Each structure stands twice: as C-alpha cells, then as structure tokens.
Amino acid sequence: MSDTRKSNERQWLIPEEGREHLAGVFKKLPGKVTLDVFTDGDEQNVYNDYAIRFAEELALLAENIEARTHTLDSEEAKRFDVTIGPGTLLNADDYSIRFTGAPLGEEARGFIEAIMLVSAGKGAVTPAFEKALEKLTEERTIRVFSSPGCPYCPGQVVNAVRAAIAKPELVRAEAINSDEFPELSQKYGVGSVPHTNINDTFDSIGLMPEERFVLELVTLQSAEELTREAGGTQDARDDYRVEKVDLVIVGAGPAGLTAGIYAERSGLKSVVLDKSVAGGQVAVTPTVENYPGFKNVGGMNLVEVLTAHTRQYSNVREHEGIEEIKIGKNIEVYTAKTVFLANALIFATGSQWRELGVEGEDTYFGKGVSHCASCDGYMFKGKKIIIVGGGNTAATDALHLKNLGVDVTLVHRRDELRAEQQLQDALKRDDVPIIWDTVVEEIKGKDGVVTGAVLKNVKSGETEELALDGVFVAVGHVANSELAAQIGVNLNSDGTIAVDRSMRTNIPRIYAAGDVTGGIRQIVTAVGEGATAALSAFEDLQSPRWKK
Ligand code: NAP
Question: Per-residue pLDDT for 261 more than 90?
Fold first, then answer.
C-alpha cells in the first residue's frame, strides 16, 4: 500500500476553475475519506491512468482525502473482493461503496458527491431516509449502471451510496461505468442509464426520488405495483415542513432558472423546484448551437453555468417533485416532504419526449429503445441504430452518435428535414445516411433486446425489416401541463399552457414560461419568458391587476 500524494507540479486532469471550487467544497469535509484505487497495473490502459490520477488529484485538494493505489492481485483486492479494475472503494473499512470504472464526465459528479456523503457518514442520512430504511432486514447489493454523458445518473448513484451509509451491515453499493464494461452491462441487460439492479433480481430504469428508491430497495417491488396493491393510498401530511415564499417556480430548466434570478432581483423570495435534476432538456442536448454568446456549447456545460448563476440568488431544489397544488388565499404547493405557502407560481415544467406509439416501443425501452443520445449513445459504439425524426434534436443526436462511432441512419417521415440548414450540412459532411419518406411500424426484439424494426415507405407503401441494435426516438415533445390543467389553467389545443404576452395564465398569480407554453421552443426564448413571468409576478403582487 503506498501513499500516492505527489508534488503540486503536475499536469492536472481537473481544470483550474474546478480545482478551486473543489478545494473550497472539500474544506468543509467533516470526516476522513480514503480512496482505494485498484487496477490491473496496465499503464497503457487510459482508464487506469485516469482513475488513479483523478483520485490523487482529489487527495491533493483536500486535507481529509487520502488516495492509495493497489493492483488486482494485492492482498487488499482479495480482502475487499475486487476482481475488475479500475475500481475505487470509498472508506472500505466502514462501507461497501465502490465505483467500477474510471469516473468520467457526469460520473465524476457522482463520485465527488459520494466522497462528501462518506465524509459526513451518518450525518449524510436524513431522519426520513433512516426511518424508511428501518424496514430493511435483508442484505442488498445495488448496482447502478451509468455513463459519462448522463446527467441523471449521479442522483441515482447518490441514492445507492446513501443507503450503503445508512445500513452498512446490509447494503452494498456499486456504480458501474457501463461504457467501460460492455460485457457486464450486457449481462444485466442495460440499454438505458441510469439502470439499477438490486440483488441480481430487481431492475429499474431512471433516476428516482429518494422515497421511491428506498421503497423499492426494501420491498424489491416497483412503486407502481405497491401503489396498486395498496389501492393508491397516500400518507398523512401531518409531518410536513412548512416554508413561506413569495414565488414557487416549478421546473429548473432554462425558463425556471432564469425566473429564479429575476424574481430575487425584484425582491421576491423564490424557490425553484425540480422533480429531477436542473437543466431540463438542455442537460441531455449534446451540443447547443448559437445560444447568444456561444457558437456552440455542450448542453450540460450551459446548464452548469446557468444553475450556478441562479443559485447565487434563488433556492434551487432538485429531486423535489410537486404532488399537489391548492389555490386559496395562499397558493399551497405540496412536495413529498414540504408544503410551500406562496403568493404566486410559475409553471416552467417544460416538455417530455414524444413517443412513436408503435408496438415494441414500450417493451424495449431501455433495452435498445432510447430518447437520450448523450446518456445512452456510448453503449451503441460500433453498433447499428436508427434515429427517428427530422428536427434539430434528431440531427444533433445523429451527429453526436456518429461522432461516438455508432453506425447511425436517420429515418424521416418526409422528404425534407425540419432541422436547421447548418445541421443538415453537417449531416451531409459526416455522411449520415437518411431514409426518406419512411416511418417505423414496429420495433422488434428477441431475448429482451432490440433486434430490428419494421419500416414502411409512406409513398410506396412497401415495408422492410431492418436488423438493428437500437432505435433512438427524436420526434418532438409534448408539454408537461397536467399539473397546470388539474388546477384549472387553460391549455391550447396541443396541450401547451395558454399565456398572454406577459406569461400570465387565465388564473391570477399563476404564470407559465418556456417549452410548456409551446411556440418557438428555443433556450433563448425560454429564458426570455422566464424573466418576463417573474417580472409579471412581481408587478401583480405589488399592484394586483385582478383587484383593479
Ligand atoms: P421538432 O422540431 O418538433 O421535430 C420533430 C420531428 O419529428 C419532425 O421532423 C417531425 O416530422 C417528426 N415527427 C413527429 N412525430 C412523428 C411521428 N409520429 N413519427 C415520425 N416522425 C415524427 O422537435 P425537436 O427536433 O425535438 O426540436 C424541438 C425544439 O428544440 C425545436 O425548437 C428545436 O429547434 C430545439 N432544438 C434546438 C437545438 C439547437 O442546438 N439549437 C437542438 C435540439 C433541439 P415533420 O418534420 O414531418 O413534422
């Protein structure tokens, strides 16, 4: 075992700005964290090199972090049963928490969050989480498969790590880089990330709210199944925390985040709530073209800058989905743990992927069918896929997949694309084949994975079956407007929220902004609408127009 701290003179992996930020964050680490990195000793393996250097750099940035390296044939590897590398254990003497693979891209975020949780130990476990886990009496091994481009993955890794800290005697947590270990991913049938497997028997796809994760961890049953069995009963709301704010903003995409900035600057106390992670659709857009100031910028990079900016003013709360809204003297907004008493509310709930609605789409979702090229693209390197759609998303995703080394063909229902000319030129330049005038009729599969699709030429009526490993669907979006509709907000015929030029809805003190209102649906228009909605809320609360 050797202490790997070396001199400060090094070629850093972590950029300077990131180092400064982490050094500040790590100053507050309450307890020691030991990172044991295991590799097969192959110095030519870039993943080994990355895993060791990343751990070393984190150790150089924090007094409380120590990094040690070992080989897979060492005593330590035997002791902790580490057989594949690179892999990193966190405080291996206290917990069973391991990262299998080099924590690249978004995975690095999960890794850093895990360090913070391990450092805090039991302090990282909320009383509610601990209480929910009380019912767990059997051992659990949680495997969370993730990928470097998946912004939802770190949240699910955090869920697993937190459970391993809360119940170290029963829970083992492992985060696996699915891109680096394709055989392992294949063994567990991973086609979309985050993919969680518990005890080799229970699988789920996607990032879950903490409560749902614990429920499924304890019962090894899906939350839907349990709700059905319980007849849809809901817990009493006696132990809710009450928070008073001026403005609740629902959704932390570009519109909601901008609304948070403008609300606070006007003097409105605001909270921005998101059922998932901040960023909305932008977080999974590989490259954003022509957001003013950037000719092109990574979607996640833009989200990071925007979220950090908003956090300087407003309270951005991720993984806090809305369960119910009641309108009275106050607007009451219920999440799983809190009721916010507000004077105004902005729906910035965005939109979700539209489905094709063909046979096989649901059955093979996460098993070859995907909507997220930046999350799942890595798994299709060298494989043959089609991407369905003719808009900017389909074109951007096709270019991203091609760049990753995926054998990608675009399938579009008409004979011209809706995508911007610049993207069309890029598709030509990169030799992305396009099948015109064609729709998908059925997605076929065998042994639980996609094997092909039946395509139909809409002009000739001819059908053919194409052998495929995956089908990416990019056929536009539908507005997330159900919550708004439930409280009586008027919708347009396409399901988007009807607003006036000031982003006011038909209900006083309720506004909407961004993709949920339809229209141009660009980031730049979403931020404009977010600012307008916040300023309208301010104006109305100062001088209520509905009382005039
Ligand atoms: P979109 O522009 O609405 O395009 C959806 C595409 O899917 C269209 O080509 C449509 O065909 C096709 N389609 C719809 N339903 C279908 C079905 N059932 N079967 C087959 N094809 C179907 O959606 P989007 O591409 O997701 O873009 C949404 C918004 O985000 C746009 O405003 C776009 O500009 C923006 N965006 C911007 C960037 C950027 O970097 N600037 C990147 C991504 C997205 P038709 O053409 O025949 O209608």
Answer: yes
